[in-house]
Amino acid sequence: MAELNEQVLRYQATGQGLEELLSLLSARVYAYPRLRGSRCEDDSGEFYLLCYPRLVRTLRRFREQGKPFEWYLQSVLRWQYLAFVRARRRRERQWASGSLAAFWEPPPLEAEPALEPPSLSRQAEGLFRLEAGGGAVRRGERTRLLAWTLKQVRMLSEAELRELTELARVPLELLQQASARLRQGLLPHERRLELLAGRRTRTYASLCLLEQELGREAEPGRREALARRVQKARRALCRSQRRIAAVRLAPSNREIAAALGLPKGTVDTALYSLRRRQQAGAAVA
Question: Is the whole model's pTM more than 0.90, yes or no?
Answer without folding.
Answer: no
